[in-house]
From TrEMBL:
Protein name: Beta-glucosidase 4 GH3 family
SUPFAM superfamilies: (Trans)glycosidases, Beta-D-glucan exohydrolase, C-terminal domain
InterPro entries linked to this entry: Cellulose_Degrad_GH3 (IPR051915), GH (IPR017853), Glyco_hydro_3_C (IPR002772), Glyco_hydro_3_C_sf (IPR036881), Glyco_hydro_3_N (IPR001764), Glyco_hydro_3_N_sf (IPR036962)
Position of the signal peptide: none
Assigned keywords, A-Z: Glycosidase, Hydrolase
Biological processes annotated in GO: glucan catabolic process
Residue span(s) of domain Glycoside hydrolase family 3 C-terminal: 390-599
Domain Glycoside hydrolase family 3 N-terminal: 25-353
Any one GO molecular function term: beta-glucosidase activity
Species of the source: Artemisia annua
Length: 607
């Protein structure tokens, strides 16, 4: 028997979709609308239920410190089960590769988005997308829940570092990462149609639609109160760019707009996103978002399924209770509460993405990509991003006597602070695990490692996280570098209404800076309160955001091999009670305005 049309790569995508959907049973269609977590995905479940997608929730992998090859083997096993299903529809495997393929041991870890926003370099950010896609595909994974295109209007939001900026236009510029992740659609390619160039690209996901960064007081999953015009102008505009670049999927936000949950806003998900903006990929829910539509959590789940699917959600990231989800969804279709036309629309969108992603032709991993994971070329790109992300906020107590660049041949350097030699801290959340953690969590270069590689062999580097007053008094240090900041956090656990420097950072700075000329490097996902009496003791101050695995990017600049280029992507407030505060508002009275950034005025060979 000849191959069915849907299996013919030469056939037009829309023809393949129509042919395949005409062959599908209701169970197979509903299976495609289901995304489950790998921990509940057995071979028989994937095959018998025709599951559309599997994901790794943050930190969920084959085993601790699993390499790309281990991941690829795991994903291929799931895929082989999917290919054994009646129609052989391949499964999409998804993961949060939000600053590199941050789940895989040894992968290149880039600065989080807030640092990329400080670079304002859309070409570099696009290249980072390309590299991330290669390292994700090297793990056999096809689908990356990135980029987050939130416009973060309040640094108290626990996901602030996932946002490129508080400025919509800067976020729009950074959506170039979509072309990096998915590839660049050719001129003649249909407008707004999902696009994936090839086997070193991934299905991307613009998230979280819409207004996730604009909630009242920055409360995660909270409520964004605004006119539609402001919602569109401030928070929706980056989606125009993602859709015009062919983004394949959009993730609905947990948050609400004017009291309506996004996951049950037919107006925003269907009338605006699909009809007005012409989005032709699929809308995926956030994890357990349907459970959060009801109170108490998870009660009247069937109503939540009804509301979300009829509002325009196409695939549900269940991700664990898939039997209940499918039971409720099946009941709702059989009773006609969810029309078959809605199901067919959802399944068409899902199949469209799978066809354009080449999944039917290349369902299994390409092991030849594994050597690129964490390779020098990729790490050099990450190191460049670190350099360009650094923002110099103070350079010398007397502007006429700049403190930086530091002397590589200094006699004795004191390096202090909990973040000076902690790869996990410099990577932040969404690294190795969901929430991130301290320590040597992957391969990379800490700031201490980088300093040792940078300074002259006669220079003594004394690393002491919390030096005693004796240490400070008894040794004549040329200068001190104090590296402090936030410990890793993610999502709601990052909501913070104090925004002070943790781990007694101010006391440490004061004790050192009052005795030794001091540079402070802040590792954080956002601006933090800088106490004036402490700040005036400091000789120089650098905001390094969450730089990722390549700490060498920091020493490249502070020791003068490169000039500072970074400029604030967000407002640096004076006091928390000023928040929310954005440029253009009448109460705008920042410590440092968005766009601020000093230079060292290097005169020698500026690379
Ligand atoms: C999380 C996040 C979302 C992520 C998803 C899968 O709760 O909100 O950004 O892509 O679940 O991990």
């Amino acid at each position: 028997m000849s191959n069915p049309i849907y299996k013919d790569p030469a056939a037009p995508t829309e023809t393949r979709i129509k042919d395949l959907i005409s062959r599908m049973t209701l169970d197979e269609k509903l299976g495609q609308m289901t995304q489950i977590e790998r921990s509940v995905a057995t071979s028989s479940v994937v095959k018998e239920l025709c599951i559309g997608s599997i994901l790794s929730c943050g930190g969920s992998g084959p085993f601790e410190n699993a390499t790309s090859a281990d991941w690829a083997d795991m994903v291929d096993l799931f895929q082989k089960s999917a290919l054994e299903s009646r129609l052989g529809i391949p499964v999409l495997y998804g993961i949060d590769g939000v600053h590199g393929n941050n789940n895989v041991f040894g992968a290149t870890i880039f600065p989080h988005n807030v640092g990329l926003g400080a670079t304002r370099d859309h070409d570099l950010v696009r290249t980072i997308g390309e590299v991330t896609a290669i390292e994700v595909r090297a793990s056999g994974i096809h689908y990356d829940f990135a980029p987050c295109v939130a416009v973060c209007k309040d640094p108290r939001w626990g996901r602030c570092y996932e946002s490129f900026s508080e400025d919509t236009d800067l976020v729009r510029k950074m959506t170039s990462i979509v072309k990096g992740l998915q590839g660049d659609p050719p001129e003649e390619y249909p407008k707004n149609y999902p696009f994936v160039a090839g086997r070193t690209n991934v299905v991307a996901c613009a998230k979280h639609f819409v207004g996730d960064g604009g909630t009242e007081n920055g409360v995660n999953e909270g409520n964004t109160v605004s006119s539609y015009e402001d919602l569109e102008r401030i928070h929706m505009a980056p989606y125009f760019d993602c859709i015009s670049q062919g983004v394949c999927t959009v993730m609905a936000s947990y948050s609400s707009w004017n009291g309506t949950k996004l996951h049950e806003s037919h107006y925003l998900l269907t009338q605006v996103l699909k009809e007005k903006l012409g989005f032709k990929g699929f809308v995926i829910s956030d994890s357990e978002a349907l459970d959060r539509l009801s109170h108490p959590y998870g009660s009247n789940y069937r109503k939540c399924v009804l509301s979300a699917i009829n509002s325009g959600v196409d695939m549900v990231m269940v991700p664990l209770r898939y039997e209940l989800y499918l039971e409720d969804l099946t009941h709702l279709v059989e009773t006609g509460e969810i029309p078959m036309s809605r199901i067919d629309d959802a399944v068409e969108r899902i199949l469209r993405v799978k066809f354009v992603a080449g999944l039917f032709e290349h369902p299994l991993s390409d092991k030849s990509l594994i050597d690129f994971v964490g390779c020098k070329l990729h790490r050099d790109i990450a190191r460049e991003a670190v350099r360009k992300s650094l923002v110099l906020l103070k350079n010398g107590k007397d502007p006429k006597k700049p403190f930086l660049p530091l002397d590589k041949c200094a006699k004795r350097i004191l390096l202090a602070g909990a973040h000076a030699d902690d790869l996990g801290y410099q990577c932040g959340g969404w690294t190795a695990t969901w929430e991130g953690k301290s320590g040597r969590i992957t391969k990379g270069t800490t700031i201490l490692d980088a300093i040792k590689e940078t300074v002259g062999d006669k220079t003594e580097v004394i690393y002491d996280q919390n030096p005693s007053s004796e240490t400070l008094a008894n040794q004549d240090f040329s200068f001190a570098i104090v590296v402090i900041g936030e410990t890793p956090y993610v999502e709601t656990m990052g909501d913070n209404s104090e925004l002070t420097i943790p781990l007694n950072g101010n006391e440490l700075i004061s004790s050192i800076a009052s005795r030794i000329p001091t540079l402070v490097v802040l590792i954080s996902g956002r601006p933090l309160v800088l106490e004036p009496d402490v700040f005036e003791k400091i000789d120089a101050f650098v905001a390094a955001w969450l730089p990722g695995s390549e700490g060498g990017g920091i020493t490249d600049v502070i020791f003068g091999d490169y000039e500072f280029e970074g400029r604030l992507p967000v407002t640096w407030f004076k006091r928390v009670k000023q928040l929310p505060m954005s440029a253009g508002e009448k109460n705008y009275d920042p410590l440092f305005p968005i766009g601020f950034g000093l230079k060292m005025k290097l005169v020698h060979n500026m690379s």
